[in-house]
Amino acid sequence: MASSTIRPSLSSFNKLPSFSSRNLSQRLSLFHLRSGVRLLPQNFGLKASRFLRNDNRCMRVMASRNMSQSATQENALDWVKQDKRRMLHVVYRVGDLDKSIKFYTEGLGMKVLRKRDRTEERYTNAFLGYGQEDAHFSIELTYNYGIETYDIGTGFGHFGIAMDDISRVVDIVRAKGGIITREPGPVKGGDSNIAVIEDPDGYKFELLERSPCPEPLCKVMLRVGDLDRSIKFYEKAVGLELLRKQDNPESKITIGTDDVYKTAEAIKLAGGKITHAGPVPGYKTKITSCVDPDGWKTVFVDNHDFRKELE
After folding, report:
1. DSSP 8-state secondary structure symbol assigned to residue 7
2. Which residues of 287-308 are buried (b: 16+ CB within 10 A; e: fewer)?
3. Domain 253-309 sits in which CATH superfamily?
4. H/E element holding 3?
């Protein structure tokens, strides 16, 4: 049988300890002799050492690249802390826009801030809240043509509204045909008073009795599968601060940002998934849309574009 030269694979080099080029052929020869293969040519060691030197150069380049990527990642996450961000609005779908607007304005005392009708895409948006959008958090109701009901699911909890007299608001909601799922009263184990009501589509609102505050629409409650994972995501990618935690057995949020593209990089680094980054079709407004580790959707809107949209 004619003899043939066996070329060692890259994995063979990786398994060998470091040594000089002079001993390289001997080490390789011994390695192959143990496998029952004939000795390699003596000049193989020189070629292999050159190969290893080239390989080491590649490894140095790769290490440098990895260090550069780490620095970029660190810069992206640090930038989140410096970005000018605030909660803009929360978005959810309703089956009867006029009925919902009546409930929020007459029952909860909100104002219609603006409306926009996208006939080509077959939907209408209505923005409601307790103050102008350039300084306050608001609700964006979305009505999709021809769809009257939605399955809310079990992940969404409720919205929180702070007010100084929840009993009076509950009476108004009841008179308007609203559903009261918890009558006004103290929280179990606490001294604060709350009530829970439902809007025409079944979305829950927790009414919190507090002294008047500049932002009545004060909370959005969502259910998550891993609290620590979610806290890490919202701190690192979204830039929120953990205010407090409490043990209790008991849609989409929009946030302003100075740079939607840097925001997208930070979200990816923190474990989120980007679904869109760039201008919204039909608008000039740039956004980054993402989902967190539990699938909750958050949209970041370019601050400059958002101000132009309000003009």
Report:
1. P
2. bbbbebbeebebbbbbbebbee
3. 2,3-Dihydroxybiphenyl 1,2-Dioxygenase, domain 1 (3.10.180.10)
4. none
Q: Is 161 helix (H, G, I), strand (E, B) or coil?
A: strand
- What whole-number distance in Å separates Cα of residue 216 and Cα of residue 210? 9
206 is in an annotated binding site: yes
Least confident of 50-54, 124-128, 196-200, 245-249: 50-54
Q: Which residue ranges does the chain devote to CATH 3.10.180.10? A: 89-238, 253-309
Q: What CATH class does 89-238 carry?
A: alpha beta
Structure tokens at 20: 């000089």
The answer to whether 140 is annotated as binding is: yes
Q: Give the residue numbers marked as catalytic.
A: 206
Separation CA 28–CA 39 (nearest Å): 8
Q: For residue 12, what are its two tokens?
A: 């063979």
Taking only the tens place, the pLDDT of each residue in 34-79 is 333 344 444 444 444 444 455 555 555 555 566 556 657 768 888 8
Q: How far apart are alpha carbons 201 and 193 in whole angstroms?
A: 25
- Cα distances (Å, whole numbers) of residue 171 to 100, 107, 161, 177, 178: 18, 9, 16, 10, 9
